Amino acid sequence: MTTLAETPQVSPQALFSLQGQNILITGATRGIGQACAIGLAQAGAKHVILVQRDTSNTTTKDQINQAGSKADIVVADLSDMQAVKGVFDDALKVADGGHIDVLINCGGIQRRSPSTQFSEDDWDDVLNVNLKAVWLLSQAAGRHMVPRRHGKIINFASLLTFQGGFTVPAYASAKGAVGQLTKALSNEWSKENINVNAIAPGYIATDMNEKLLADPNRLRQLNERIPAGRWGQPADFVGPVVFLASEASKYLSGEIITVDGGWMGR
Hints:
Belongs to the short-chain dehydrogenases/reductases (SDR) family. The protein is α/β, with parallel strands linked by helices. The protein has nine helices and seven strands. The chain has a single domain (15-258), classed as 3-Layer(aba) Sandwich (Rossmann fold), CATH 3.40.50. It has helices at residues 12-15, 31-42, 59-66, 81-94, 120-148, 169-189, 210-213, 216-225, 238-245, and strands at residues 22-26, 47-52, 70-75, 102-105, 151-156, 194-201, 256-259.
C-alpha cells in the first residue's frame, strides 16, 4: 500500500514557495480566479496556464509575465464538454517539462430564478460548467498525477456547498456536489501524494454577485450577517490558494476551507 510522503522539514519560506511549479487554472480572466493566478505567479510559480474561452483577454497573462512567470492560454469553453475533455492534454503540450503540478478549478457561472420557473437549459448549463467540467478536469489531472505521485487539485466550492441559498437551485446543487467530489477524490488519491482540497468563498464583491449587490434590502440583510462587517475581495483568496498549492498544506486533504469573513462560524 502506498502512503502519503512526509512533509519536508524545511524553512517556512520554502514550504510556501511555488518555485518550479506548473499550474493550470480555469476562470482566471477576472475576479477571484484572476487574483489567484497572479498571486501564484508572484509566489514563484514557473508556468501558469490559463483556460479561457478565447484569447481576446490577455490581462491576466500579461500580469503573470510582469511577475516574472511564464503564461500561456489554452482555449476552451467550459460549457462544451468535448472541449473540456481536451484541455488537460492541450495544457501538457505547452507546459514546461510536459507536466502539471497543480490544477485549480475556479471557473463557474450563475443563473438565478425561482425554482418553479428555473429552466432545464439553465440547470444543464450550470451543472455542466460548475460540476461536470470540474470532474472531467480532475479526472484528467488524476490520470497524470497519480503515476507521478505528485500533485495538487484545488476546487472552488461555495457557501452553498453547505447552505441552500435562494433562487439558485442549480448552483447550490453543483457546489454541494463539488464538496463531495473533493472528499471522494481525496479518499482515493491522498495516499498517492495528491492533495485534493476546496475553497468555499463567502459573499465576494465580483460580477457574479452583481444582482445581490444591486438589491438594497438583500444587501443590508447580508451585511448584517457577516461578522467581518464587509464583503470579501478577490485579493482575500491569494493567501489560501498559495497555501493549498504549496508543500505547506502537505497533510491537508479532503478539506473545504471557507473564506467568508466568519459567515459559517456564525
